[in-house]
Write a structure and sequence with these properties.
single chain; 224 residues; mainly alpha; 0% strand
Length: 224
């Protein structure tokens, strides 16, 4: 009985901890913007694949993330900075998007159909970004055996399912927005994504600057 309560607590903690970080409601407008011009079927496919990639990424970091980051010497601030740079680039490209002629529009839509956004930028870094990866890595301290890991993975799957439902329903909004509204949304979301990316970089730099080992090293250097 106690073990079931413990597992249920880990499961709920995973869902409650990850859902606000991933925030599918906030990701839905961006998903509509980066899949502008796609059919409903393709949007569903991109959402499904993106959520599956998200589960794979988070579970991979849950199981082997600590070892991988220690092996390559990657820190959480470094992860935030890298993710922030990637998101900033995505935001800048969305801000720079423009359509001039009908021929350009046809070429851009044809090119868009060949682009798979399910892994990047949807799964990484929008859904499984530095924040959700950091939270997932923190769950490893709660796991003592394989059943605990199973409860955490179950929580990740539930969050992915909720995210998929939100993204799938978001596709219906496109018919009410229209091309002008989608273009405006693309610009707005591009700016917001760029701001979030810059903030990730700032948080990463602050994380490095406030690292206790670094501060001790500076104090020791000043002492001499």
């Amino acid at each position: 009985m106690l073990n079931l309560v413990h597992l249920w607590g880990i499961f709920l903690g995973t869902v409650i901890g990850l859902l606000p970080i991933i925030n599918p409601l906030a990701a839905a407008p961006t998903f509509l913007a980066i899949t502008e011009g796609d059919s409903d079927a393709r949007r569903r496919e991109q959402a499904r694949k993106g959520c599956l990639y998200m589960v794979s990424i988070l579970v991979s970091f849950l199981i082997g993330g600590t070892f991988i980051m220690n092996f390559f010497g990657i820190s959480i601030p470094g992860l935030r900075i890298a993710g922030g740079i990637l998101m900033t680039g995505i935001g800048m490209s969305m801000l720079a998007a423009h359509k001039t002629t009908e021929e350009d529009r046809e070429e851009r839509e044809a090119a868009r159909k060949k682009v798979d956004v399910s892994f990047s930028p949807l799964a990484m870094p929008m859904l499984s970004g530095p924040g959700s990866i950091a939270v997932t890595l923190g769950f490893t301290s709660l796991a003592s055996d394989w059943t605990d890991y199973g409860a955490i993975i179950a929580g990740i799957v539930v969050v992915a399912f909720i995210t998929y439902l939100v993204l799938r329903l978001a596709g219906r909004i496109v018919t009410f927005i229209g091309p002008v509204g989608m273009n405006a949304m693309t610009k707005i979301m591009g700016f917001l994504i760029m701001c979030i990316g810059v903030q990730f970089v700032v948080n990463g730099i602050l994380g490095i600057a406030t690292d206790p080992e670094l501060l001790r090293g500076i104090k020791a250097a000043l002492a001499h």
